[in-house]
User: Fold DNA ligase from Sinorhizobium kostiense.
Amino acid sequence: MSSIQKPVDELSEREAAEELAYLAAEIARHDMLYHGKDTPEISDADYDALKRRNDLIEAHFPALLREDSPSQRVGAAPSLTFQPVVHARPMLSLDNTFSDEDARDFVASVYRSLGLLPDHSIAFTAEPKIDGLSMSLRYENRRLVTAATRGDGTTGENVTANIRTIRMIPQTLAADAPDVVEIRGEVYMAKSDFAALNAEMAAQGKPLYVNPRNTASGSLRQLDAKVTASRKLRFFAYGWGEMSEMPADTQFGMVEAFKAWGFPVNPLMRRLFSADELLEHYHHIERERPDLDYDIDGVVYKVDRLDLQTRLGYRSRSPRWATAHKFPAEQAFTRLKGIDIQVGRTGALTPVARLEPITVGGVVVTNATLHNEDYIRGVGNNGEPVREGRDIRIGDMVVVQRAGDVIPQIVDVVMDERPEAAETYRFPTTCPVCGSHAVRDINEKTGKVDAVRRCTGGFVCRAQAVEHLKHFVSRNAFDIEGLGAKQIEFFFESDDENLRIRTAPEIFTLERRQEASLTKLENIEGFGKVSVRKLYDAIDARRSIALHRFIYALGIRHVGETTAKLLARSYGSYERFGSAMVGAGSFSGDAWHELNRIDGIGEIVARAIVEFYKEPRNLEVVSRLLEEVTPESAEIPVSTDSPVAGKTVVFTGSLEKMTRDEAKARAESLGAKVAGSVSKKTDIVVAGPGAGSKLDKARELGIKTMDEDEWLTLIDG
Ligand code: IVH
Assistant:
């Protein structure tokens, strides 16, 4: 991403539309990496910068607002494996603030909106923003009944069994607690517990976890609660959803009540009375940050009085009475010792910086991503200069930046310290692994040259084939215990054809081939008799596998976990999916249109899937795989006992309590069908202010109409 972008007010309408399209796709991709796969690619700060740019362009060009705009969504769609839970009150997001000045603006805007004079002091709370997973805990009659993740804000995942293993979370509440209590807060893993877990992984020669947040997320999304129990997770309470009675009338008082009911609350929360005091506490927390045993990424300010919160109300997905003041990313200087080129599963050549080890924000960094060759040259994704056009050379003194949890990046070069002999870096034009040409494709849609150079070796390229297999056995795909990256390398390289694994189906024929073989796996160092038996059992255990895992494991370009789940949910069975993809081969016809109609699947993704199924070699591997493995059919989780199940609903006019997407997702999760136009088949029309012809038509046809509040009352029961 470029740090120097064209100012928004200089963009033409066409440029703005193009950039919004790019941002929608890019942000969705990062959402997928972050929420779906737990493997972020860019720093939180860069992610926020993308979102801000998107918001800014939308503010200037309101007519260009896209239906799939990131500003219209709260989070990622819920995953399939857990039962969906529709939140009694939506779980919203926070607006971000990035500077002291913006924080003052927030306070000023609160005063302005409430019509208060600056000398009339009101209270705010300030507390750390915990970098974990938000959770909603529902207690009925003082017993914990449901724990749900945020999901997309409307519908989350039911993780109650896993949450019950967290000792810090009370199972029952004291007699003075109200009948219905919904506590919202953050589940996290302590830095010390994370370090201990990784030390254990290292001792066992297993791959290390990336960071506490993703590990906590992974631990919580285990279907087996015993695994969650073995990881120490913790919790901080900071908010609430539905409450049958309110124990206090301020934010601070509410949190005190939670504490009295036995919930852990953050000790750094303060009640303060001016922007100066908020900023002073922000900088205090920033100084404390390295010594805290949990990751935080900012400070949250909230208006203390609940009646004032109500008066301030909400934007589409965040409250006007709160903001998150984010910490800047951490940076340090070091020398660039060399540049390695890694070849990924899709053939992408990724330059990786080898650095003189340096501590950035408490973590020793030796590698950093350099993104692609343009980035090294000082050119950003949209052709504009980055680092004011300064290129990066081996030997340079560079600025390394690390934000929270993601791969560190090199953001700048100190020109005064460039060695005289340093030469312009020449990016290879052949694959360093297989020697095939490496090319930059032209993006069909934009006509622009791709930033990424790719090896054209395909299956010939050892790096691509190995990475493909590693992906196949990875945690969110086949997840075969005892078959990790190291073992894959070993089997791939083997000279013995009864031991060799070059494609996924060969994993499942290994045991059979071994029976006929003279070289026995159990005689090879590192594999005893017991571990070989265990490996075969682990392989056999995956002969039946969830459909979305199967699809994800195929390693189709652009198909991450979230997309795989969408596909599984939409097609239900592999037979339907596979034959539809083959049937869509001409990029036209019913099968092609059906694929493109899936909410969340854009043309680029659709093309990539169909292209995959056009390659005979892929078809062959998949069909051999299907001889060994059975993908399970996916259940489509829709509630059937809701008052709107089976009904066709049309939303029209503007909605004030939820976005269109939220309204649609929520209605669908309750079993309703959401249609775009009113017809005789329509059962309910929900009309907000500004509703026009659709409402008229509904009245004409005698269809039931209601406003947003009536709708919410209906579905909330
Ligand atoms: S208040 C209506 N307080 O940040 C807004 N959120 O970006 C309710 N978070 O989804 C959120 N620490 O997961 C709040 N002290 C804190 C928080 C916090 C972390 C997370 C939460 C939320 C996200 C919003």
User: Anything to note?
Assistant: The first helix runs from residue 13 to 36. Residues 92-94, 127, 129-130, 134, 150, 186, 238-239, 300, 319, 322, 324 surround 2-(butylsulfanyl)adenosine (CB under 6 Å). The domain at 84-326 is CATH 3.30.470.30 (D-amino Acid Aminotransferase; Chain A, domain 1).
